[in-house]
Design brief:
With 254 residues, this protein is an alpha/beta fold. The protein has helices at residues 26-41, 67-70, 74-91, 107-114, 141-149, 151-160, 166-171, 184-196, 200-215, 218-233, 236-246, and strands at residues 2-6, 11-16, 47-52, 57-59, 96-100, 103-105, 117-121, 125-127, 164-165, 177-179.
Length: 254
């Protein structure tokens, strides 16, 4: 149900493949955890794309049919594992792009929020409809969405449970780019290939530094930034980048 495709350009595509709506099952959650551990240790992968297989959905949320089996202890049987899976996506050292060519609802939206960049086709919608089931976003939506679009807009989305269009999502900063219909993955591949050409250590430092700075004070962020800088500026890729600049050529990062 989770399918990995690797390209020659150091880009990996993770397909959520549970037709027709790619709903997230308990088994798929475990697969995401395992797969992102593998991707982290794979030196041939420099950037990652997550997308939905088929034409209808990125991911329409959790599999409601499994609720009965976990309702007596939903925190331990379901939500804790989902949070672990999405943290794997968020904390992997490699840039992650969500290519949203179909609807992204509930857990699907929350998975996209855990990605670094979101690309969305103009004909699809995104939202957190959990309140209509008498619950609320339990896999990161409560804190990731406000961090991305602001508290008031995030609360309105979660209070109403209404989905928004791609154009509105771009306007409020929820997605980076809106593409033509069914072109989000194509756009994401081009962007991922551009990112994958950059030096690995610098990419990891940018991701770690940005993520960490949200959680700590400004002074702590400065000290953490200096620690990252010390490692990056001593790297071979940094030496190559500086040499290439003065030699007026394209750098060959390793």
């Amino acid at each position: 149900m989770i399918r990995l495709e690797k390209s020659d350009n150091r880009v990996a595509i993770v397909y959520l493949d549970n037709p027709p709506l790619n709903v997230l099952t308990l088994n798929m959650t475990e697969q995401i955890i395992q797969l992102f551990d593998e991707i982290e240790s794979d030196n041939d992968i420099r950037a990652v794309i997550i997308t939905g297989a088929g034409e209808k959905a990125f991911c329409a949320g959790a599999d409601i049919h499994e609720f009965a089996a976990v309702r007596n202890d939903v925190t331990e049987k379901k939500l804790r594992k989902e949070n672990e899976a999405f943290l794997k996506i968020e904390r992997i050292s490699k840039p992650v792009i969500a290519a949203i060519d179909g609807i992204a609802l509930g857990g699907g939206c929350e998975m996209a929020l855990a990605c670094d960049i979101r690309i969305m086709a103009k004909n699809v919608k995104i939202g957190l409809p959990e309140i209509r089931l008498g619950v609320f976003p339990g896999t990161g939506g409560l804190y990731r969405l406000p961090a991305i679009i602001g508290i008031s807009r995030a609360m309105e989305m979660m209070y109403t449970g209404e989905s928004i269009t791609a154009e509105e999502a771009e306007r409020i900063g929820l997605v980076n780019h809106v593409t033509e219909e069914k072109q989000a993955l194509t756009f994401s591949k081009k962007l991922a290939e551009k990112i994958a050409q950059q030096p690995k250590l610098s990419l990891a430092a940018i991701k770690a530094g940005v993520r960490k700075s949200i959680e700590i004070t400004q002074e702590e962020a400065i000290q953490y930034n200096l620690k990252l800088s010390d490692a990056v500026f001593k790297s071979a890729d940094c030496e190559e980048g500086v040499n290439a600049f003065f030699e007026k050529r394209r750098p060959q990062f390793h």
